Amino acid sequence: MAIYALFFFATISAEQKHLIQILIMIREIRQEEIPQRPKYGLTFLVLNSNIRFEKTHVFKILHLEQLNVFHQRLYHKLASVVDMVAASLNKEHNLSTLSLYPVTDIVGISWFVADYFPCLFYDYDNLNTLKSESILLRKDDSAREASLSKVPRYNQMWIITYLLKIAYEKYVERVTFDKFVEDASRNKLNG
Q: pLDDT by residue (tens digit) across 85-135?
């Protein structure tokens, strides 16, 4: 590729070379001026959007079948873990929405939940024979180590962020309602 570029560059006129150099300089200047794309932009969008999925949509996104009993159990375990994480976050920080948390923390939590359910959130397609800790592979009568590397199915584990956002909103609603009922009953008893 570089040889072809050099050949091409050698066959053009001096005026064209100068024009190309100016275009390269403009491109370099524009790249410095263009703000870097947010590293966790998808997570930020999920946290700040009003998008809602039905349970059937979430099942399809997670590649689960709603009629399969094992898939239903797996989904309910995932929902249970997400609910516990949402409750824990609210009890610890007591913020009104999940979008007030640092995005990097939410991404970290989403990856943590994904690691708890690797069958849902990772594919194990790539066989890496360079370094391993698990499987022994024999090839040509010489033993070499091999391992399967995890390949994430979802960019920034956005579906977990979505489930966490919904669970957090429900938890805040429930806590707010419980406080309202408690205050109303206290006022009725005192009043």
A: 999 999 998 899 999 999 889 999 999 999 999 989 988 765 555 554 445
Residues 6+ apart with CB under 8 A from 15: none
Whole-number Å distance between alpha carbons of 73 and 50? 28
CA 66 to chain CA centroid, nearest Å: 23
φ, ψ for residue 92, nearest 5 deg: -75, -40
pTM: 0.68
**Under 8 Å between Cβ of 147 and 133:** yes
